[in-house]
Design a protein that fits this description.
The protein has about 70 residues and is α+β, with helices and mostly antiparallel strands. It contains 1 helix and 3 strands; from the N terminus they run αβββ. About 0% of the residues are buried.
Amino acid sequence: MIGNETLHGPEAIRKSYEDNMIAGRKKLDKLEWGKTQIESHGDNQFYVHFTDYLELKGIYTSMQTAAISQ
């Protein structure tokens, strides 16, 4: 779920990643995606672990998030 929207299927998830990357690159000086790891937890659940590297006005940081989908 992204906000109030539930994503269904791999194409919707891929498009969401792409759209967010494009929007982020317009707002930030630098946006790089790191490695992603997917962990299965049953038939319809998984964790997506990923790291994003962000830079804005000379400040560099990384963001790590784990998301659960059902």
